[in-house]
Amino acid sequence: MGSTRIRGNKLALTFGTPGTDYWADATSVVLENEEKDSDVVTFEDAAGESGTDRQWFFTISAVQSTATGSFWRYLWESTGEVVPFTYAPHGNETATAEQPHFLGTCKVGPKPSVGGEASRTSEFTFEVRLDVETGPTLDEGGV
């Protein structure tokens, strides 16, 4: 029997307080990390023991919608704020050991783009990067 797989047909993605779930606007969500850029390296950084040598971030693609309550509108109105997030890639409401949630805070960057190429049938989308400020931590539901 293989491992439980994460499927691309549901997720839960909340931002803010109280948390609002924006999964319905998202077309792609990836929580990833890269080496942190730093002009100054401390001895702790050089020793690699602090665990802070990686920058976590979300890359999110979503539909453009200026409607009140849309993800695009939330980002537009929250530019520069540090907000809590909950990311549940399995789409489950309650975190478990088998289907954990990822928690933390992230900073909303510049206002999202608006517009796109002319078309008779396509809908506009946009992509945004949200840098994680604290976390992510793995929530297994109190296990």
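(the above was protein one; protein two follows)
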Amino acid sequence: MKIAVIGARGRIGRKLVRRLRALDCAVVEASPTLGVDAVTGRGLAAALHGATVVVDVSNPHSREGAAASQFFSASCHNLLTAGRAAGVRHHVALSIVGVDRIPGVDYFDAKRTQEALIMGSPIPFTIVRSTQFFELVRDVVQDGDVREVRIAPALVQPIAGDDIADFMADTVMAGPGGGIVEIAGPEALRLDDVATEIATAYEDGRRIVSDVEARYFGARLAERSLLPGAGAWIGPRRFDDWLRNSLQPDAHC
């Protein structure tokens, strides 16, 4: 089975490539740094030639404004067009839990556009909607100002990037038929509490401020906006285990 991973040099892409190769899959790594640009179409035909599955875990450099919309509209259109020409039999894409419940946010609107294009294509698909991954929460903490980071106290069920990669590899091996599925971590936690523990573990001297008005990708969060539904696949790695492992010098996060 030949699999083209779009966004192969990203955080989830690198993990996914390793897992698929461990399963003896022939993997084509596709990213702009490797000469494959889904937004412009450069290198796509060659990357997808003979591929059975396309897995899209790519992301734009900016998640705000028109940049996100243009990225997902162009890249998804080009991937589906090239996939049909190449005879791809399964299109797998990573999306976000809650993307259908939080309108008016540029990044979420762009992801909904991507999902609609995939669902409107004749290529069988699986859309994997994931909750926030721990590594992303860590990035949010690191992006605060010099004295404090304001975080909404919304409930989240964050998941480890390794578990996302494991599930997506299993999805590839299982074949099409998944439709839209949700995945999440094993614990429901307050987003501000998770941020506080991350800041403490990384010896970040800034204060984490719980603020119901704090935005998440520009969205004001209700308490349960980011929680998965009852049928979600639950990853095994708990927050404390991930945090402990992430502090190891050789951790791949």
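Reviewer note on protein two: The chain has a mean pLDDT of 91.
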